[in-house]
Amino acid sequence: METLEDFRVRARSWLAEADPPKVPLDLDSRFAVLRRWQRTLAEAGWLGLAWSPDAGGGGLTHAHQLVFVEELVRARAPQPIGLIGLEVVGPSIDRYGTESQRRELLPRLLSGEDIWCQGFSEPDAGSDLASLRTRAVADGDSYVVTGQKIWTSWAHEAQWCALLVRTDPSVRKQAGISYLLVDMTSPGITVRPIRQMTGDREFCEVFLDEVRVPRPNLLGAENEGWPIATHTLGSERGGATLRRRVELEVALEDAVEALRGRDDLGDRARAAIGRAHVAMRVLDAQTRQTTDRLLADTGPTPLDSVDKLVLNDVEQTVFAEIAGLLGPLRALPGSRPTGLHSERWAHDHLYSRAASIYGGSAQVQRTIVAERLLGLPRG
Prior knowledge:
48% helix, Acyl-CoA_Oxase/DH_mid-dom, four-stranded mixed beta sheet, oxidoreductase, Acyl-CoA dehydrogenase family protein, alpha+beta, FAD, four-stranded antiparallel beta sheet
């Protein structure tokens, strides 16, 4: 197997010649550009590096995957659009899927030909995911699904959805959940995008009205979807934390470069960058343990919740400190006298407020830490 250092050199060389695209702020244009970029990365063999070869992956290690993420971000190249599939859903299909599911679904996921969304949260079961109410009733060779999901990123563009449903309401709530792989073109599915304060509309609510899902689209066994869901969420939190750490580091470097030579900003800018820098060092220390767990392939652990909580705070601190230097000028387009580009930093600051919600809310993560790591009694 190729050594990590040789792999890093090869990745860096390829990225230097690849001419990564510039990412527009307009959401529709952004989606199209990043989908083409995902196809480019997949065709060159840079996606699914740690997945099994028979699923279209590279058969390498998580360490190789981490190295490529680092080099991608350092090259100021964008992430592919299908991160929900690549980082969240795909690893669970690779681990728990049938041979047919892996062979038919994962290569198209890697290439971006199929975009995936994640149908987990519901209006009354977002933070308490195990209380979900979307029902799936067995009927012949299908499940008939009725319910509602919310905060389903990119559902309006997705071809497939990883959907959690309740298949047995008579047992304790975690025990009666199943994990379905749902074709988003199925009759009975309605998607409504939700406009966020950033102006983007990639979050959606999804309504399912007697949607028929073939039984072969069940991932794992019926009523045993909860362990697969925790694997999915663990992949999301661990992998995203490591990727986001590098992205935040590069963002801070960009801000420092833009501010370089602006002595007129004085102590205010130095203090803001200092606070952001300290936050990043905290995240660095935390992710050393994250990397060790990911490479050891220990599976989901309550420590993933610690990662998520630290990332929440650091991401919001970094973007708040940078955006704060723009003052009221952050509402105006273009580069400001500070050298900072207001549209970029204002957008990232607003989006960072969602960090304490997506991937599991901060309140739920604190509960997991309290009960499962500290041994405190349930409230």
